[in-house]
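Help wanted!
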Amino acid sequence: MLSVDEARAEIRALVRPLATVEVPLGEAWEQVLAGDIASDIDSPPHDKSMVDGYALRTADLRGDATELVVIEEVLAGRVPTRTVERGTTTRIMTGAPVPLGADAVVMVEQSTLTPGTDPPRVTLQVPSAQIGQNIMPRGQSLRPGTLVLRAGATIRADDVGVLAEVGRATVPVVRRPIVAILSTGDELVSGAERPGPGQIRNSNGPMLAALVRQAGGEPAEQPIVRDELPALQAAVARGLEADVLVLSGGVSAGVADLVPGVLAEAGVRQVFHKVHLRPGKPLWFGVAPRADANLPPRLVFGLPGNPVSSLVCFELFVRPALSVLRGAAYQGLEADRGAMVAEFQHRGERPTYYPARVATGARGELPRITLLSWQGSADLATLAQANALAHFPPGTRSYVAGEEVEFLWL
Amino acid sequence: MLSVDEARAEIRALVRPLATVEVPLGEAWEQVLAGDIASDIDSPPHDKSMVDGYALRTADLRGDATELVVIEEVLAGRVPTRTVERGTTTRIMTGAPVPLGADAVVMVEQSTLTPGTDPPRVTLQVPSAQIGQNIMPRGQSLRPGTLVLRAGATIRADDVGVLAEVGRATVPVVRRPIVAILSTGDELVSGAERPGPGQIRNSNGPMLAALVRQAGGEPAEQPIVRDELPALQAAVARGLEADVLVLSGGVSAGVADLVPGVLAEAGVRQVFHKVHLRPGKPLWFGVAPRADANLPPRLVFGLPGNPVSSLVCFELFVRPALSVLRGAAYQGLEADRGAMVAEFQHRGERPTYYPARVATGARGELPRITLLSWQGSADLATLAQANALAHFPPGTRSYVAGEEVEFLWL
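Answered by r_m:
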């Protein structure tokens, strides 16, 4: 049986980013850039005033106050038409181009207009100004060709601003993976139904759909499938139209666990079945080649039907694969280390991921890990109180209160 | 002029959650619950087997191995029809109801079927079993009426699973705020255009739309509006159909800054104009009552036109307001403390938020803050490299390398 690391290596070796698509800038947020982005312009596009004020020649300033003739007013979006010469100044708005001849801008707060003169006159209450004061030179922030964002970056809100600045009405991103979600089991009814004897509602399907969305994929939740060959075969065929097929249930050793056989018949090659892990041991993984052999194969994950097992397998195996498919690095949940609040006896030869509540401590202190009472791997109500999965390596041993262990932030 | 805290208190006093709507479970992820959610069922719905195995009477186990008659096989989704009596056992799948008479389940891995007998017989290689072993009692996780999620919780992926389990095909959530975004300025052209002399591309509109989406709102980006009264009046009237109107530009003291007047004419009551802050001093905030006075007023934010100023004002003032509108607590970006990598001279009487790159240090060490070269408040290219805003209180003074300051994670 594979270890968690071995299983992850098998998956990693088979997963590659999906194709590049061009999306409107308004849809680019949180997608992954598929190419480097360079500026097509100077930014600022001109020597730019950084304040509302008066553009002038610093050499003209004398004494504590200097009166100058206002020859022009330049609003934002307009360009100066006159050169600032000795004894003159141009009224200028924040962002507007600095006129020829001027070498500084004095803030409007330091000026007083002389009443009733034509042309207008202004007195500037400053003894001197530095050359370049309140002026941002053309191209200081960006030059044509300056690299602003790199391929592989997840596009943040401020990146959207930069992309707009450098003229990207559309952006090349890696296509989001479409993930078919198929919940199997004769015992399942939908959330809208009231379970009869022996039945439970399908919680895995909706939970996995939300996890896929959170991981940047597009979930396509399929109707519940019974443990019957023809229904399962048809559902698997439909699910294999997606980039990833995630099944939940039907992969244990039980009599009704038909999934592995049906997948094999559908041309899915089994890469592994079962992982040395608790919960989540029955995990099944395979790949289905596409008609175009240049394209990466479709991925098929058979997750155990218990919600906690399903979540653990999604986080350890499916999330990092989706990350690569959508163009980012191979990465799952963030790992951290914390201190156990109470003692804990770990039993068994499988590494365990245990739902836990982690509280961040005072500065310099480790986060504190409280294990949640866990009634078998099917207890969703416990999971909803968890914000982490505590990780215990294989081997029976006691952990004392205060002992340091690894955990994953949910 | 108001301080940042005073301005935030003014906003906070005027903002209330929007109305409750019922959304399909598939759309509930990341929305905020508008009511407490209780279970409508027992979970598990029956005494449930936690493994694939044999349900039996513990009193029957003797010696190292016991042979029992298999009277029935219960698949998932089925219910037992026979009572387990002395000397008999029922084959049972994970999740299936435990038959009457049985008080434990032994794992299938500890069993061997006797070949060729009818009825079938199985030998269990266990000397004994505890009463209740591998059985999760009915209702142990949830009872009807058990509170599973509270109003005000942001719905996570595992919560979606719980909501499905307790029968919620639809979920009451607080409506997402619709946020109209209006970029004003004669100097602006769209990202698809090449700027002429004196022009720049509109980067604020797309950036603010992405920030709104990230904050859980629904952005409605309007076309660029020129600094002309009729165009601005029409655009403001349209924008006031949204829950929040965010304008960028047009609120400074410049000649063309027409926004405050147009808003007053449109019935928006100014709450404050200008905040003791750098960048972001020109911020304008007002409210417009709705026809139904029971509903919270529409909010109007006039942000400065410079992208960095705009971002700082969004994070300090708009994000927390959106958080309340959508039903969550009043909260903005996460604050933290870090150590300055290099010395820094802070000047002026306004608190400053400075784009910075923060690296998390080794355990027990503070995160390290590197201030980014910041060419006036308009430099988006710098902002795109920032992952934090370092915060300096008012007052001219030197910060030495290693000194501790507050920052906000972007």
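OP: Thanks! One thing I noticed: Chain B touches chain A through 101 residues (CB under 8 Å).
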